[in-house]
Amino acid sequence: MNFPRYSHKTPAKSKNLQQFPTLLDILADQVQHHGEKTGYIFLEDGERELHHLTYQALETKAKAIATTLQSCTQPGDRALLLYHPGPDFLAAFFGCLYAGVIAVPVYPSHSHRNLTKLKAIIADAQVNLILTTESLVNKLENQWSEQPSLTHLQWLTTETINSHLAAAWKRPDINKDTIAFLQYTSGSTGNPKGVMVSHHNLLNNERLLEMALGHSQRTVVAGWLPLFHVIGLVGNIIQPLYLGVPCILMSSDAFIQKPIRWLEVITRYGVTTSGGPNFAYDLCVQKITPEQCSEINLKSWTVAFNGGELVRADTLEQFTEKFAPYGFRPQAFYPCYGMAETTLFVSGGLKTASPVVHQVNSHALQQNVIKLEQNEQVKTQKLVGCGQTFFDKIIIVDPKTKTRCQPNQVGEIWIGGVSVAQGYWNKPELTKATFDAYLADGKEGPFLRTGDLGFFQWGELYITGRIQDRMIIRDRVYYPQDIESTVEKSHPALRMGANAAFSVTTEAGEQLVVVQEVKRTYLRHLDVNEIVTAIEQVVSEKHQLSIYSIVLLKTASIPKTPSGKIQRYACKQGFLDSTLNTVGTWTNNVIKV
Q1: 8-state DSSP, 76
Q2: Which of 196, 447, 476, 567 has its CA 20 to 30 A from that of 322?
Q3: Nearest to 236 by CA among 39, 511, 447
Q4: CA–CA separation, 186 vs 198, rounded Å?
């Protein structure tokens, strides 16, 4: 079967942000010049084309929804967007923008854990209205009606709104400083926080993305990350609209269930830009068979961005080795760094260059010092550069003294620039502490305190981990991802990318806990003692650490964000509460099955 491959010859022109101060102006411009052009293609199960959405159709539906919202809300009200991936989400998101209502995109799962998180978001954002579809209302309304804190909510099913209402739309009084939406953090570190993103934040960051990734009218974007996710929304939805180029979308479930679908989409549509967190590339390496690759061709893929979690050198090497025979080039990898608090993008490498990887002394890194190491007899660690910064200012700061670090020191990353968001909704004290930081002398600022640790060396920004995840055991610093990487390779029964390392306070001080999923095929005849011994031995040898507790989990039960990242905070809380789905535990030399 032959599929269309998009091809454009005209280079993109960066938008003048004075001429296009809001996202409404961007969509209006695309409608004026390319109204009948397909902006988005939605795939069912990552394979069959289910919906095509033109810019004209998107604007018309959005204006109809906005007209309805203007009859029952005030500008600045918050509306929860509860949708599965698809055109209904896009129409509702832009409908909120067209009404001056602040959109709050969320994950539509009906699990108890997700409902608890949604209740926290609804209370924090002071939401009274939910936009959704009839099918989701039928699934969720009864469950939600049993929650006393949710009975005040009104439900609006947007797919039933008549498009003729678009003619009655009136443009609200919004400008570049108006809050466009609240991007709630994943909640992997505790209670979710709503990042206030203005139109100016958004469009400035889209301009940075265009420049950094070398986008043009030849760009074709594809994505599978959830549309409420910062990369899914800002990168996979708004960036293509900003450029006026096509975007092909499928659900994250479709990718995770069958990763080859991602590479098939890249092949089928001649995709140039697509990516995700590091685990996505690991999943492709682990799950895709040579037989599945017989018809894939990845030559069009020029920007394989890797961001959202720590980028691993081993992942880049293994993915390149496996898929080079099918046209993937190492120069396509684009390690990058960003977060919701900076709208999305902060730094990235050169589009035409291979990732920059340096080998550093592991012992020195534990002391927050960077030292290149070539001696094979010394324990080392590979660190991947996340490119140059595109922000006004990034500095590396000692988080305790609030003074600048030396170039060879690890410190907290502080950022200043137009794309830094307005703060956290309804949290003035936390906003001041996080978004209004100054160096100790009080002369330099304000900066965003990212909570991420890293350093500038060799012309690149390197990320080493998060302050809250860092473990200090016996006066040494350990990063959980290093121990997690060691553990998952220690025994064939263990699932890759499905573990968490963290420390807990005991009478003997801070001690290490490891939580690890077991492969389904090993559950029936599980030898807990053999697996525990293997984990304990390899961690002791490689990290000179003893383990306080090892918890083996049932397959696919470890807490994750909807985009697939491990929630270390939830794992730790589950360990302390004894609520994890365990198949075997080992604590203080005692095994329980």
Answers
A1: T
A2: 567
A3: 39
A4: 20
Q: State the chain's maximal CA–CA distance in angstroms.
A: 73
Six token digits for residue 579? 């609520």
pLDDT value, residue 186: 61
Asked if residue 106 belongs to a domain, the reply is: yes
Tell me, what CATH number does 200's domain have?
3.40.50.12780
Over residues 133-157, mean pLDDT: 87
- How far is residue 35 from each of residues 80, 89, 255, 516, measured CA to CA in Å? 28, 19, 30, 50
246 residue type, one letter: P
Name the packing angle between helices 23-34 and 55-70 (round to 10°): 140
Given the structure tokens 């979690």, which residue do they identify?
Answer: 309
* Position 246 pLDDT exceeds 70: yes
- Do 453 and 507 belong together in one domain? no
* Residues sharing a CB contact under 8 Å with residue 174, sequence separation 6 or more, in sequence order: 22, 24, 75, 100, 199
Structure tokens at 251: 């659900």
* C-alpha–C-alpha distance, residues 54 and 58, integer Å: 6
C-alpha to C-alpha distance for 225 and 250, rounded to whole angstroms: 8
| Long-range residue pairs from 146-152, CB within 8 A, at least 24 positions apart, any chain | 147/115, 147/119, 149/119, 149/122, 149/123, 150/119, 150/122, 152/128
Global pTM reads 0.89
Residues 39-89: pLDDT tens digits?
A: 999 999 999 999 999 999 999 999 999 999 999 999 999 999 999 999 999
Strand order through the sheet with 273-276: 48-54, 38-44, 247-249, 221-223, 273-276, 303-306, 333-338, 345-348, 388-389
Tokens of 233: 């929304």
Residue 541 to residue 534: CA distance in whole angstroms: 11
Structure-token pair, residue 380? 């080392």
Looking at the structure, tell me whether residues 537 and 444 fall in a common domain: no
Q: Which residues have C-beta within 8 Å of that of residue 438, sequence separation ≥ 6?
A: 402, 444, 445, 446, 447
pLDDT tier for residue 392 given thresholds of 50, 70 and 90: confident
What CATH number is attached to the domain comprising 360? 2.30.38.10
